[in-house]
Amino acid sequence: MNRIADIRITPIALKDPPLLNASGVHEPYTLRSIIEIESDSGHVGLAETYGDDDTLLRLQAVAPQLRGLGTHDLAALTDAVLAHGKGRQAGVAAHVVDGAPGTHPARALDKVFAGFETGLADLNARAAGLPLADWLGGRRMQQVPYSAYLFYKFGRHHGTPYGPEDAGDPWGEVLDAAAVVRLAQDMVGQYGFGSLKLKAGVFAPDLEADALLALHDAFPKHPLRIDPNGNWSLDTALKVAERVGSALEYYEDPVPTLADMAELNHRTGLMLATNMVVCDRSEFAANVGLGTPVRTILSDHHFWPGFRATRELAAHCDTFGLKLSMHSNSHAGISLMAMTHLAASTPGLAYACDTHYPWQSEDVIAGGRVPFVDGAVAITDAPGLGVTLDPEALARLHEQYLRCGIRSRNDTREMQKHQPGFVKRKPRF
Amino acid sequence: MNRIADIRITPIALKDPPLLNASGVHEPYTLRSIIEIESDSGHVGLAETYGDDDTLLRLQAVAPQLRGLGTHDLAALTDAVLAHGKGRQAGVAAHVVDGAPGTHPARALDKVFAGFETGLADLNARAAGLPLADWLGGRRMQQVPYSAYLFYKFGRHHGTPYGPEDAGDPWGEVLDAAAVVRLAQDMVGQYGFGSLKLKAGVFAPDLEADALLALHDAFPKHPLRIDPNGNWSLDTALKVAERVGSALEYYEDPVPTLADMAELNHRTGLMLATNMVVCDRSEFAANVGLGTPVRTILSDHHFWPGFRATRELAAHCDTFGLKLSMHSNSHAGISLMAMTHLAASTPGLAYACDTHYPWQSEDVIAGGRVPFVDGAVAITDAPGLGVTLDPEALARLHEQYLRCGIRSRNDTREMQKHQPGFVKRKPRF
Q1: A134-388: CATH homologous superfamily?
Q2: How do residues A132-145 score in pLDDT, each as one tens digit?
Q3: A91, B27, B54, B130: which one has the fewest Cβ atoms less than 10 Å from its Cβ?
Q4: B130 and A1 in contact by Cβ < 8 A?
């Protein structure tokens, strides 16, 4: 039996453009934890997850408890994570700042479990000599399609976080419909994406609807999604639906609660999607209890915790006639390949997956960044995730983490540097 | 990558006592298919499933299509089974005789998938050097508790199927409450079972309620279940519930439809269990749609197909607040160990599992029959299922299959040998 001999957790910081969302604006760096799990047989499994202090400190606290466990023993991993949670329960709420989408404290333990579960899966797949998708049960796709993830954005970060000579990111300022179309043309040109998603909830909803309709004109054959991160009232979401509903592949988290989503579905019949109001089993049951007003669930193995749980989610969706898509957060190549292998082996994944990968310019993997062909990432026959760490890149990005000064993501605080009066409100519009 | 090099499917017949149920009486032999899957690396995975012609012929038709597949490739296995089903769809309904519980044609392809999926899991666990429970995700139990499965029974089969000198099985005739208690005492004495299940639906319901109450008197601390296989009307089930409801751990399939189960739950509030009306994902959704009147699901990896599907079922049960138990059919030691490893690694299994194993006296495994201690079967540290085939026993029981003349289970036809006027009716009472 392979047993866990050592676990290394390295926080890194990746440069991130000033992307706008409902909470504010992305900070100059996004934090990720890189997890290496080494077995007593010398195999190393890789995982990548959130790098904010809350996740990182929990990963570091649990890791020593895992030494000596069998690499297949998810029961013991569950127990170790729950034991950690029990000890820390009191401290969690105070520790976590709800400063960005995806930092809800209830997900904290799920994130820790998933970080280790996915690393162990990679390790076991490598030990078996199998690509991860094959180890997970076989490929349904050889290439996994992704969608272009379009953000409004500032041209530059506040201050000069990368030094006075820095020229800013290559994507430029995106603050209106014309710029959104230009961005989509750039991104589709470079990556070949066959579908488009607009991150909304930033500007007046009518302006965002204008942008979506402009995309529809410029890309009449591309499926379109819009995602205001729950930043619209029901009335606003209804008004936007009247303008753009017929152009949408799905309407993602327009309103902040499941009850509002149910009412919106009742009144529009539109396909609603979420990664915010159906994020765990109890929320899944609540959605079913309301007659499944939300009919597309965005999985995310980083917090719907792990590869096994994602397969169980896919089975749940099949049982209740729901569709499955995939969410992303800012990430490097290990998460991208984990998403790709998982998507390739998950039955019923009905849509191109989200990815932030084009927004990142740095990575920790050897051999350069993961290539996209026609908007898709291919599975190779290499074992596990099919990628390995570049130790120099890891060290450099860890140094960047140590220097960057960010320890918990807070898009609201960053926005206040640009607009001192900015406050977080949901729904804002 | 390990690939499938060869698959051997051997039908066997095991002597089976004349156990009574809603459909009639068990025939002198029960049929099982023993599946050996050999990989190009020389590992052999074992599985056991139904041996009736419908299952056997399908297994034999699909097996050649699986040569060369990766041993983890459940996606390709799914495709091969579905391709077989597509070709044979028209012939299925005519081929299957609904002569016994568990022979519904809709389960035919699921049984084929499960036979191979479980054999591949054993193979992969052996290749990884892990006990199957560990390979499936880790043990939640070291010993898996089973319940005594009490049947009414004749003292002897009709005719002399085992030859004129045969003295009959050691359990004797069980046709009334006193004999049921005596049987329970014998079986608990030999196996140490800590809970009791009475197979009912055979005699007048009041007599069966008498038997259950007699068990309750004789074993006041043993949880009790009664299972008439849907052979009671709603009125009958309500009347029996008045007499025995408070003594039941759960009330298993008293009535034949989900609608009747819903009404029964509504009027009694009793914990209802099933392996008949919630047997697949669509029936699971129907039960949820009715507000989960059935709150305990009996899994069975032979037809809720396979180990992965059982884990997904457990996740479904967790999501909707249902409990999980485990069904059995007449079986040998390979199925018993598959059930044991699966149960040990399945979160939320809340009850002692069913098993028919004490009713069988013959087996195909090396080293003698699987031991029970205090009503439980232990997991060992041996790889995979922890048991191997005895080639001589396999050959002998295959010879018995060739001679026995039974090719499809039909408890009704067998009963007509004892009682020529017997007809199948459901609900009978």
Answers
A1: Enolase-like C-terminal domain (3.20.20.120)
A2: 999 999 999 999 99
A3: A91
A4: yes
